[in-house]
């Protein structure tokens, strides 16, 4: 077999730029290019082990399939694989040929029988500078003839071609010439008693003829012979990759500097066999790889390591576009094998020099010290920054004890500080995440620590500074890179919670010694830095295809060989990210309007929210979860703050169907709470402070049709004289002060109740009507000389106004469903309330006279109440949620959408200032995938 010199290790960033194309392009390029080469051959399929004698001795890849037509059909019918491939510029002719081949074989029984029963082998070979050609070997099996092949080629290509007989080494073969514009201008065909061989390359066919007489070294290759026995009998196809030769193929896509080095890259391993599975959502390749027996390869670094859990996604930031994970069970053996692999290469010599320098500065054996403290994880990850085109490399290393590794590094740093006659504080900076929490970031005692840990691959990061998250040491080249990791970790915005990553988790083996995972759309800056201009242009022109490659992955671990798992995961999910100030991940999905509350120490705003798992959270203005309290029930009221002890310290008050809750700022219940209700609540609690003296009253309706009024100690007030409602009260009771009088207002399905403080009727409406139960009664304080009025709709959307004397008037605006939402706000600033409806997928707004002002049609139904936001006396906006589409809308008072909307979100949202000195409003909303978003609204 032709040997190509292949040097795996290189120094620094150059090394990384060689390794990553090896791993990523294997996943992206090989299956796609093979499909294209298949189509160009007009005949596909596979090989039995004996057919390898007909393959030239320098294959880059070999692919076999047991049924050509079955494989072609599976590709064509695979969605979104085939539609995604069609988005690649230049692939259209190939896709047409695949479809044509499928159609012809199905419409011609002879062709279908030929391709169904003819195993075949396809191999790809170098055929000159940046030129690669294939060889297709068909097993004759007594039923394939040249004239049948000619008929098939004529059907597929639309022309018969010109046949010519050629003699080489006393053997005859044919050349079929097509038009110069054809995808294959010339095809050479050789047939013996057992096989039919086709190739666009005359040289390759003549090489086949020569090897058929002299013997083929491939048949004696021990690695390939072993892998042939391991091939899966159930897979549609098997792919054999020559790990020594494939870099020459890849180099054609690399930039000039990288291209020269790719062909010297042969120390990953020997051969790998991969069973190919085509699925609707991607391609899966799995099988055994082997290392060289005559040299220590990269695979051998992990030979003495048991596969480790791949759970670093709980620490890696969700902005990661790529990560490489080493699972290390025995650190000392790992370092020993890494040294053996690097040997006397340039990368090995550099790492040895770094170790000598580190040992001298530390005053001890650094490698042994680190090995004694390391746990199972070593990670190189590339993180994306909003608005940045280049990804940031960061190294993360797991240790058994954060205090232990921190003490060791700071000890080495103190030694350096002493030698440089500087105070330790000179090497330290502090990252202030928020008012309450900060993190120390230090300069490293010596550079090159990432390369000491992981070899030249990790030299992408010099490691000039370090910090920690959990038991992970973070190494980066700038403090702000470590700050980004800490920030994402503290907000629980890690890769395991990223929806794009979650699509691929069931494709990733839970245990592995080596894992590479990449989201191509997130590493375009990196790809642009390694590809040649032509390939870079191809990527830019095929963004739709690249976007639908949700992820690519490569894993391996040792089990009597190196078991490999490779995949390309297709996705229809858009990768666009919301432009948020921060995103905080909760433990459950969110269907709750975030509530702004006041930190009574700092006067800054914080956020209270509950998830669907009934967890209650307090989150500060930086998005960090301060505490989580599990509740037994969903909250059915607003979140109120009261000063229970009258000491200017605030507590959180709310209700659930069976309890009234009062929790202090630390997440602890106030004495006597929670208070058990006398019957299940039918509405949410409300709180009144009649005289602003902090003698609070809590009012709530229950299923026994009683309205209960409690004092702040949780006792039912004896002076409350209201008996029962006729129906069920669904909306919170409200308190209004008009002049010197108090009004307590609520409604059931059939009537409106307007009471005084003692529960006696204060206003008796002169007309009763079926009340819409999804809407609160609104007070309109001024109605052009008629005085204040309460406004509500009936079940069909007719507007009813109730005045202080009990008079009732109506306004007809149209027919609405029983499930409509309604509220009132003065949008046109005429001193009178305007009417706002949301019904099904419509927003409709009318002025005080019932004249239409504007309307809007959404792409889904409105399932939550309308909210009105007042930015200033004259700036009023309407908020609407379309939960099913994860969209939120904010409308100006003239009906136009506020700039930047709709935004992503699935709950009602709150708008306000999180910081007293802020110049911009914050909009906080629950979104899909358990995230709480904070947007900045100007």
Supply database-style keywords.
938 residues; alpha+beta; 20 helices; disordered N terminus
What does this structure look like?
The strands form ten sheets. The protein has a 20-stranded antiparallel beta sheet, sandwiched between helices. It has a four-stranded antiparallel beta sheet with strand order 23-53-52-51, with no helix packed on it. The protein is an alpha+beta fold. Helix 2 crosses helix 4. The protein contains 20 helices and 53 strands.
Taking all residues together, what is the mean pLDDT? 84
How much of the sequence lies in strands comes to 25-35%
> Taking Cα atoms only, what radius of gyration do you get, to the nearest Å?
36 Å
Total number of beta strands: 53
Backbone structural class: alpha+beta
Could you tell me how far the N terminus lies from the C terminus, measured between alpha carbons in angstroms? 67 Å
- Detail the poorly predicted runs: 1-49
Instruction: Bin the helical content.
Output: 10-25%
How many distinct helices?
A: 20
Main sheet summary: 20 strands, antiparallel
What sort of overall outline do the alpha carbons produce when their principal axes are compared?
A: elongated
